[in-house]
Amino acid sequence: AFKAAVLIQRWYRRYVARLEMRRRCTWRIFQSIEYACEQDQIKLHNFFSYLMDHFTPSSSKERDFISRMFISGESFKEAELEKYCDYESMEVPDSYTGPHLSFPLLPDHATALLEAFKQKQQLHARYVLNLLHETRKHLKQLPNISHVSTCYSEEVTVCGDLHGQLDDLFLIFYKNGLPSPSKSYVFNGDFVDRGKQSLEILIILFTFLLIYPKEVHLNRGNHEDHMVNLRYGLWVGLIAMRRGFLQNPTELPFSCSFSYGFTKEVMQKYKVHGKKILKMIQNVFCWLPLATLIDQKVLIIHGGISDTTDLDMLEKIQRNKFISVLRGKKRKESYRNVEIQEINGESKAEADPAGNETALSLCPQPRPAQAPSMANKLEFSRWVRQTVQEQIEWCRRLVDISESEEEELTYSSMVSLTDLDGPCWTRQEEWKQILDILWSDPMPQEGCRVNTVRGGGCYFGPDVTGKILEKYNLQFLIRSHECKQEGYEFCHNRKVLTIFSASNYYEIGSNRGAYVKLGPDLVPHFVQYQANKTAHTLTMTQRQDFPVALISRVEESAFRALREKLFAHTSALISAFKAYDKDNTGRITLSNWATAVESVLHLGLPWRMLRPQLVRSTADGMLEYKSWLGDLAMEQRSQEHIQSSLLEVIYRNRSNLETIFRIIDRDHSGLISFEEFHQTWKLFSSHMNIELTDDGINDLVRSIDFNKDGNIDFNEFLEAFRLVKQSQ
């Protein structure tokens, strides 16, 4: 009996260990893909910023267009903003059955909003704009670092990322109670994006902020940034399904559904006044405080710190000037003769022509091929787009110089500030302070280094944490920014606490949400939860098997996303595999397969451990890589047998196409006008030495407008890309 008990115990421990390993691998996949998406956002922004830095408008009309396109609303003065977002002129019709607001707000208004949102009702645009207007007025009076004391309340509750998941906020209020004079809350940023009810979360939080200004505190997160919100989710997977790429919605890969979404959400819910609401929210975001201090002993920031974090400087920064942290981009002396533009586009200085030549000499520019005759419009259109693609790739290589050299000052903590002059140094240093506290992550190693995984901020070690705590006489830090499986996690000898409040973030069952309560003794007490209706309806027998079923479901979703990622890089993988296949046999070792895959995807995953889920076992330890890639293509290919290479390109570039479309579509109407397209083409062609007449550009835009309605929608935008790649 004793031997049997030991044997059962051994089996059980082995079984639990395997489950834990599967769970960790699944988590690693989700997190790596999430951070890779953030890198894509930053690279695309750097590319457009590079074009901007080397574009000299030839007329006031072009200058106005560029101002609207890349400096969206930043030049709005206060009076202009209030006039543009005038809510008083809006009438609420008698047929409106949603909640009504009157100012000053009362607790009953908050209760009515909560009930209305539970019933899927929508707040009228007049009330939304009025609420944003009052919130903005209140936030402008607040310091950069809010100060909270436990002397005036029994405890302070700190919540992490919510990311548009309203059910999690409802559950927090259900478990912990609504904000009140005796119950203070700190919400630590990232209220929006990814979830479907970001706007409702903002409305609720802003309402409680105005009702209880001393008990409710909001910190800014890295997603309270309109440039991040622009990477919206058009649910390209649904478009792909409609075109036959996918058979049903359940096959939608992770990165299709895991989209940012806030800009699109607002425009879908408020089709008439959505632009005004977005403009106002953009301005409200930049007034959000940057940090919160509890009893002068606990610092709450969204991301983290760096070895240069200076709380005294953070308190003095004019935070409203940094509407987008992604715009804190400057270029150093590698483009020495190009005048440095002010952050957020406030400088009117133009680039020196000689400076452009210096910059362009860093990389040989491809010469466009001879243009075909305008008579053959299809051939001419193909030539134009192919030339653009070549020039874009060249610009990307120029932008990516910063990855290997420190010659370019870009959005990352690798900036060297010593070469800048006095005023520029101060502004750039302020930007870096905000960047680091919004984007940084802790690491177990000592020191402080560039956060290459996210592409922004830094990794800070326990020594950096210790120095900051000692310098400002703090006990510990609370931050969010990272999804944790249990909803919270300590690191750096329990001196850094990560709190994450969005449960089921990657997939149902992937993680718990949590919040932390601090009393006068500042000892953290955690409450975990999972806003999952499925788990609440299970029988006792089903509950026993539920953890295993959840792991299998989450694991399946993660590997589906990973296979999509592999498929999207088919061409690069073939080149990498051929480097190990010297004899052109079409076969490589499994070890070489793992090395080659990591060299292409750079996800930092344990590929040898993941191999059994991705590659069929082989008797001789060799892999026929072309057959394996063919199997990947079959998972993504449609019944119409769409060309595999075409589908690969669409999968790899769809997020960038979405963001480019949104940047051009400045009025967020979901349509690109001919004028918007014409001016955007001027931006590209002026730098790429592609000479086209106005008639040529008009022919090009008309060729993309398939339904001839005078505008380009996203389907037409994507279809033009698909047809060109197919013809090539």
UniProtKB/TrEMBL annotation:
Keyword Repeat annotated? yes
Q: Which cofactor does it need?
A: Mn(2+)
Q: Which reaction does it catalyse?
A: O-phospho-L-seryl-[protein] + H2O = L-seryl-[protein] + phosphate; O-phospho-L-threonyl-[protein] + H2O = L-threonyl-[protein] + phosphate
BP terms from Gene Ontology: detection of stimulus involved in sensory perception; negative regulation of MAPK cascade
Gene3D superfamilies named in the record: 3.60.21.10, EF-hand (1.10.238.10)
Q: Name one GO molecular function term.
A: manganese ion binding
Q: Which UniProt keywords apply?
A: Calcium, Hydrolase, Manganese, Metal-binding, Repeat
Looking at its record, which EC class is this enzyme?
hydrolase
Q: Which domain of life is it from?
A: Eukaryota
Q: Report the EC number(s), separated by commas if there are several.
A: 3.1.3.16
Q: Which InterPro entries match?
A: Calcineurin-like_PHP, EF-hand-dom_pair, EF_Hand_1_Ca_BS, EF_hand_dom, IQ_motif_EF-hand-BS, Metallo-depent_PP-like, PPP_dom, PPP_phosphatase
Q: Does the keyword Hydrolase apply?
A: yes
List each copy of the EF-hand domain by range. Answer: 568-603, 652-687, 692-727
Query: What family does this belong to?
Result: Belongs to the PPP phosphatase family.
Protein name per its UniProtKB record: Serine/threonine-protein phosphatase
Name the gene for this chain. Ppef2
